[in-house]
Amino acid sequence: MATEAAELEKSSEGFVRGLGLYDSTMIVVGIMIGSGIFIVSADIARQTGSAGGLILTWVLTGILTIFGALSYCELAGMMPKAGGQYVYLREIYSPIWGFLYGWTFFLVIQTGTIAAVAVGFARFLGVMIPAISADNYIISPIHISSGYALSLSTQQLVAVLLIILLTFINMQGLAFGKWIQNIFTSAKTLSLIALIIVGVLIGGVSGTFSANMSNLFTPQNPATIEGLKVTDGIL
C-alpha cells in the first residue's frame, strides 16, 4: 500500500502518476475491444450474408482504424496536452469547435456509448435470466405522442443499475478503479482467446472451415441452414 500511495503522488504538472504499463495497456485494450465485438458481428453477418463478407468487413475497418490510430499518434506528438480531440479541434480549427465537441461528447457521444454498452450487457444477461427482458415491463409504456413513449423494463433497469454501479466504482479513486479495469479487461481478453481456440478446434472437427471457405462470398440465410435457429437476432 505504501508503494502504491507513492505511485499516486502528483507530478510537477499536476497529473496523478498511478498507472503503470500494464494498467495503461488494459485501458487501451478495454476501449478497443468493447461490446461491439459481441454485438456488431451478428449484424455484419446479417447484412453481408457470408463468412467472407464478415471477414472482409473486419479487415477493411481494421485498416481504417490503424490509419486513425496513426493520425492520433501524430497529433498527440505535435500537441502533448491532456484533452484529446478537444485539444486537436481547438488548436487546428478554433476554440468554438473544441467547445462544441466537448459538450457534444459529454451530452451525446459518451452518454450514448455508455447507454448502448449497458443495454448490451442487460440483453446478453437476459439470455441466461429470461426475467430480464425488454418486454417485461416494470412501468408500462406511457405514450407521450403517437411515436414516443416512456417505459421501464427489467432490461432497462439492469442497464441503469449497471451504470450507477460502475460510476460509484470510478468515484472510489484511481487505485481501485484500475484494478476493476484490469480484472474485467483481462477476463474479456482471455474469454475471446478461449472462444477463438474452441472455435478453431470445434470448427476443424465439424467441417465448418471447409463449408465456409467453399462458399466464402456466397450470401446465405442462416434460418435456412440445417441445424441453426435464429432467435431474436442471435444464432
Short characterization:
With 235 residues, the chain is mostly helical. The chain has helices spanning 2-7, 21-32, 36-48, 51-78, 85-92, 95-128, 154-170, 174-206, 208-214; strands spanning 137-145, 148-153.
What's the helix and strand layout?
Blueprint (H helix, E strand, L loop, with lengths): L1 H6 L13 H12 L3 H13 L2 H28 L6 H8 L2 H34 L8 E9 L2 E6 H17 L3 H33 L1 H7 L21
Antiparallel strand pairs: 1-2
Task: Characterize the structure shown.
67% of the residues lie in helices and 6% in strands. It is mainly α. It contains nine helices and two strands; from the N terminus they run ααααααββααα. 6% of the residues are buried. Helix 2 (21-32) packs across helix 8, helix 3 packs across helix 4 (51-78) and helix 6 crosses helix 7. The chain folds into three domains: 28-78, no CATH class; 82-171, no CATH class; 174-207. It has a two-stranded antiparallel sheet with strand order 1-2.
